[in-house]
Every structure is written in structure tokens, then in C-alpha cells.
């Protein structure tokens, strides 16, 4: 096939001949040839345009099929001064190749995936961990019929539960109820005292601040 510039030169020459032709048969032959050359020029322009664009030089990646995952909700856990340990029972998990078991840790979350175990894929996730962990020192151990997830604590402190959500739920359940049989002022005092005695440092600071502001407001009103 003629190169692109030659095609354009041919087109121009045909047009020149067509403008000077007088016989109808010659004109018809030249018009047919001009149309053929124009088609070749258009096709060559598209080929050059596609070759110069990223889409023309790179193959579009095919979409990966969605993997169906079964959520793991049953587990046990305990802790040592340095680690939180989560135990998951999965029969025959030790028979899988290591590349079928993957994990991802961040400072406040973990994700575990087990693919192709007896025809099923499993996922275990925890977000908003109660306290920060050290991702690079956390790991997953494969044992006979179970997995052990070791979360390296950032600080050697006791975990009352695993997540912030679980902790809030526990606090809500343990919140003291207001005694309606007592005098309102006395009942509020007892409630605040109980919350202060049982709360952590942050709770105590919050209650002390609220009490101080309340007393200052009361003194202003009395004055």
C-alpha cells in the first residue's frame, strides 16, 4: 500500500486531472478512483490516530470477576502484655498454599482473606480497633484447623474488648440509671458521683469540668 503522503499526492493529482477532463467517461473513471483513494486516506488517518493514543498502544485491562466472600463472625481472643491474639477455626486451612491466605494490617484495623478452602472464600475484618497496633509487627499464624492473628500492641495496656464500637456498647449497658424515687437534685448528684468513681481519667475530667461550670453558673444566678 502506498504511504500516507503518496496517497494524498495521488488524490491531488486525480483532482487536477478531473478539473481538466472533458469526456464524461474519463470523468466517471477519475471520480471512482478519487473515491477509492479518499477511503484509503481516511482509513490511514484513523490508524495513525489510534496508534498515537494510549488506548491504541495498550490493551485495556479486563475486569476481574467478583469474588464471593463468606464473612467469618465466630472467633475467640485473649491477650498478653504485648499482643492481642485472635483465634479462628477453619478445618483443613493448613492444606492451602500460603498465597491463598492474605492479611492486611493498619494502625486501627485488620483484614484477613482465605481463598479456595473446600470451594469457599472467607473474609474476616475488624475496623476501629480499641487501641492502636503496630502493623509491621502483626502477623497471621497457620495451624492445624485454625488461624491465629497476632496484633502487636502499640502500648502495653489492657484491652477490655477488641473494637471501639464494642466498647461503646458496653459503656451504654453499664451506664447507671437515674433513681426517680429520690429528690431530683440528690439523684443527679448520686448519678454523677457513680459515673466519676467508675469512669476513666477522661470521664473524670469531663465530669469535673461540667460540675465546675454548673457551680459557676449557679453562683452567678444566686448573686
UniProtKB/TrEMBL annotation:
Location of this chain's protein in the cell: Cytoplasm; Nucleus
Residue ranges annotated for the CS domain, each copy included: 70-163
All residue ranges annotated as the SGS domain in the record: 148-223
Highest taxon of the lineage: Eukaryota
InterPro entries to which the protein is assigned, alphabetical: CacyBP_N, Calcyclin-binding_UBL-bridge, CS_CacyBP, CS_dom, HSP20-like_chaperone, SGS_dom, Siah-Interact_N
Region listing for Disordered, in residue ranges: 45-65
UniProt-listed Pfam families: CS, Siah-Interact_N
Record carries keyword Transferase: no
Alphabetical list of SUPFAM superfamilies matching this protein: Calcyclin-binding protein-like, HSP20-like chaperones
UniProt cross-references to PROSITE patterns, sorted A to Z: CS (PS51203), SGS (PS51048)
Protein keywords: Acetylation, Cytoplasm, Nucleus, Phosphoprotein, Ubl conjugation pathway
Task of the protein: May be involved in calcium-dependent ubiquitination and subsequent proteasomal degradation of target proteins. Probably serves as a molecular bridge in ubiquitin E3 complexes. Participates in the ubiquitin-mediated degradation of beta-catenin (CTNNB1).
Protein name per its UniProtKB record: Calcyclin-binding protein
Organism for this UniProt entry: Porites evermanni
Lineage, opening ranks: Eukaryota, Metazoa, Cnidaria, Anthozoa, Hexacorallia
Amino acid at each position: 500500500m502506498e504511504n500516507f503522503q503518496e496517497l494524498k499526492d495521488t488524490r491531488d493529482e486525480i483532482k487536477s486531472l478531473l478539473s481538466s477532463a472533458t469526456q464524461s467517461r474519463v470523468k466517471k473513471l477519475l471520480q471512482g478512483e478519487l473515491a477509492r483513494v479518499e477511503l484509503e486516506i481516511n482509513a490511514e488517518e484513523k490508524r495513525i490516530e489510534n496508534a498515537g493514543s494510549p488506548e491504541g498502544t495498550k490493551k485495556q485491562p479486563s475486569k476481574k470477576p467478583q469474588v464471593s466472600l463468606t464473612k467469618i463472625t465466630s472467633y475467640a481472643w485473649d491477650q498478653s502484655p504485648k499482643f492481642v491474639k485472635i483465634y479462628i477455626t477453619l478445618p483443613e486451612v493448613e492444606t492451602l498454599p500460603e498465597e491463598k491466605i492474605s492479611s492486611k494490617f493498619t494502625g486501627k484495623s485488620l483484614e484477613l482473606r482465605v481463598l479456595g478452602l473446600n470451594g469457599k472464600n472467607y473474609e474476616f475484618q475488624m475496623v476501629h480497633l480499641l487501641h492502636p497496633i503496630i502493623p509491621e509487627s502483626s502477623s497471621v499464624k497457620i495451624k492445624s484447623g485454625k488461624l491465629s492473628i497476632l496484633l502487636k500492641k502499640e502500648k502495653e495496656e489492657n484491652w477490655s474488648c477488641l473494637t471501639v464500637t464494642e466498647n461503646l456498647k458496653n459503656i451504654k449497658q453499664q451506664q447507671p440509671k437515674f433513681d426517680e424515687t429520690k429528690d431530683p437534685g440528690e439523684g443527679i448528684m448520686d448519678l454523677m458521683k457513680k459515673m466519676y468513681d467508675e469512669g476513666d481519667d477522661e470521664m473524670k475530667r469531663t465530669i469535673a469540668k461540667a460540675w465546675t461550670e454548673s457551680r459557676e453558673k449557679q453562683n452567678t444566678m444566686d448573686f
